[in-house]
Inverse folding.
């Protein structure tokens, strides 16, 4: 099946490199597995990220590609770009999910690798994804994006507050984690 070719870019800031957002590919399995093997308690605590080797990375990547093919989930690898414009290290993931023609709302989610946290990468990637989502899906009815996160995840709260007005707090589900 063909790999989607959508590429998004967040421009560099005075203190941070440009970001490249692109669909995940099977070639990302080794890098994704390496992120999963690191002892990253925050990634495991706040997400359903269950990748710790190349076979589990390949499964996760197939799920992301299926979302693109089915037109309801659009996951992007986030990479820091070198000044030359070439891709740099894998920094995280942003996703637009539950998109359907004629449906007014969809959900956005994100996670970042440990080395990318606290540098504005999630905020910039989310802003870029949000712009793309409305440009791409507003003609078919999209008018609202929801960002769901756990209120005790203070880093995620900061990202959310920089982009989204708080419109409500849902009751916690003990078995449900943020999925991105």
């Amino acid at each position: 099946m063909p790999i989607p070719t959508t590429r998004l870019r967040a421009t560099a800031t005075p203190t941070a490199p440009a970001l490249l957002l692109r669909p995940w590919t099977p070639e990302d399995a080794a890098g994704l597995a390496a992120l999963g093997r690191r002892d990253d308690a925050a990634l495991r605590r706040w997400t359903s990220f269950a990748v710790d080797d190349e076979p589990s990375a390949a499964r996760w990547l197939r799920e992301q590609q299926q979302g693109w093919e089915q037109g309801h989930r659009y996951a992007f690898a986030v990479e820091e770009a070198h000044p030359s414009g070439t891709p740099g290290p894998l920094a995280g993931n942003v996703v637009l999910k539950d998109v359907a023609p004629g449906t007014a709302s969809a959900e956005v989610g994100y996670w970042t690798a440990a080395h990318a946290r606290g540098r504005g990468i999630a905020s910039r990637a989310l802003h870029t994804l949000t712009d793309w989502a409305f440009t791409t899906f507003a003609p078919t009815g999209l008018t609202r994006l929801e960002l769901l996160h756990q209120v005790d995840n203070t880093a995620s709260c900061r990202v959310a507050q920089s982009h989204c007005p708080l419109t409500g707090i849902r009751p916690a589900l003990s078995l449900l984690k943020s999925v991105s």
Remarks:
- Residues 54-70 form the longest helix (17 residues).
